[in-house]
DNA sequence: AAGCCGGGGCC
DNA sequence: GGCCCAGGCTT
């Protein structure tokens, strides 16, 4: 790209950003740890969703050492509802590593950051540029959308091999004078002006440089490959009652909802009743024999790769001690203690069905 | 290179 | 109901 054009683009973008940026909590600090936490929370998550989580998290864990000293369950409880719980597990583990090997100070070194769990190309570049002022270009969903329109990039943004294409573009555009501001400016432009649908080109500071706009094809970019529709699964979960207490089990740390707690249950096979499936899963996973009492209700929930229709049952314990197969821990708790544990969204949807038990 | 991993808000 | 969001990890 022509050198004069390049500096004009950088200049206009920076000017627009200074005048239009949102006053976000993580923009009032230069603490690398705070920047790091915000970037982890912002993965695949909208700014408005993150703000309250970020504020609670930073109030509770103001430094790397505070986070490293915390137990994972309290971290997951603060993360409850934010999703992608591996982010919380990795952040906690990484804090432990920073405490142990860097004396609690996040290293301003690209390679060292990439070695920490949960820090990939995006967060490494974001922390290096925003917190340390170093020239690393970020490539996120916003950047890919903005660049795909600016240069009419035909590579679909949601294909893995597209990353290298956009990274090259981002590197040539990056303003070495203030990489942190430049990176945030491109992302803010994507968030406030260069929307996925109906972009506000009229107010765009770089519309004059935009090839898609010149071609009248802004809405045709970014290009994207279609994903197949997600399947729906049937599931069942059981509230097992024994002496006024209910059983919850902890989900294994790897995989879906790892580390959270749930009522025992599982998938309903084809041709199987939800109640029979639930009894089968409880027997298999906890070793308990239960007797059916009643069906409390049904909820629906959408995950990234499937949807679930889940029936909730109430059972009375009949016999057996807990012998776990699958879950990594269990508790017999009073119903009013449920809120002390990090639970999946499905279980928050179950709560209204439990009103009789909580009384 | 592709699949897995939450939840919410928008159309 | 599909799409999108300040992605990273695993295989």
Fold-level CATH name of the largest domain: Endonuclease III, domain 1
The helix content, as a percent range, equals 40-55%
- Portion in beta strands: 15-25%
Question: Could you say what the CATH architecture of the largest domain is?
Answer: Orthogonal Bundle
- CATH secondary-structure class of the largest domain: Mainly Alpha
| Strand segment tally | 7
Helical stretch count? 15
Low-confidence stretches: none
Shape, per Cα inertia axes: elongated
Q: What structural class is derived from the secondary structure elements?
A: alpha+beta
Give the overall pLDDT as a whole number.
96
Q: How does the major sheet shape up?
A: 7 strands, mixed
CA-CA gap between termini: 69 Å
Number of domains: 2
- Rg, Å, rounded: 24 Å
- Following the backbone from N to C, one meets helices and strands in this order, namely HHHHHHHHHHHHEEEEHEEEHH
Written account of the structure:
- The model has no long low-confidence stretch (mean pLDDT 96).
- A hairpin with a 2-residue loop joins strand 1 and strand 2.
- This protein has 359 residues and is an alpha+beta fold.
- It is elongated.
- Strands 1, 2, 3, 4, 5, 6 and 7 form a 7-stranded mixed beta sheet that branches.
- It is built from 15 helices and 7 strands.
- The protein has 2 domains: 3-220, Endonuclease III, domain 1 (Orthogonal Bundle); 232-358, Nucleoside Triphosphate Pyrophosphohydrolase (Alpha-Beta Complex).
- Helix 9 (141-150) crosses helix 10.
- The structure holds a DNA duplex (11 and 11 nucleotides).
Question: How is the topology of this model organized?
Answer:
Elements: H1 3-20, H2 32-42, H3 47-60, H4 64-69, H5 72-79, H6 86-101, H7 110-114, H8 121-131, H9 141-150, H10 162-173, H11 179-192, H12 211-214, E1 232-242, E2 245-250, E3 261-262, E4 265-267, H13 274-286, E5 289-302, E6 307-319, E7 329-333, H14 345-350, H15 355-358
Parallel strand pairs: 1-6
Antiparallel strand pairs: 1-2, 1-4, 2-3, 2-7, 5-6
This protein binds a DNA duplex (11 and 11 nucleotides) through residues 38-50, 81-87, 90, 117-123, 126, 138, 140-143, 159-161, 183-184, 187-188, 190-191, 196-197, 224, 227, 229, 255-258, 301-305, 344-345.
